[in-house]
Write a structure and sequence with these properties.
With 104 residues, the chain is of the alpha+beta class. It has helices at 11-23, 53-65, 83-103, and strands at 26-31, 34-39, 48-50. Strand 1 and strand 2 (34-39) form a beta hairpin. The longest helix has 21 residues, at 83-103.
Length: 104
Amino acid sequence: MMIDTQQQPSLPAFKIAVEELHDIGVTLTMLPGEYKVNYRNGAPSTAYYSDDLAEALAHGRNMAHNLPVVAPLPLGPMARRSRRGKMYKHNAKVAAKRRREINT
């Protein structure tokens, strides 16, 4: 899809570009006089700024090919006697004690 952006683009063209990039994990934001392309929940250092919608869209497509690898969430306690399990059990006891103190 080629978008002609010699003038300020119409809002529907911008919305189409936003939806296309959103589907592939990239965000497109319109700022005064420029467009910002970044990974979804990306750091400000990974943002790309352009004054041309077609260029921003092309760069967003290229960014989608290099999406950062998301680390897996940490696992919960694996067993009662694991170190993490002991920490969870201790924290639950402390929280229960605090709730009892507040309620009395």
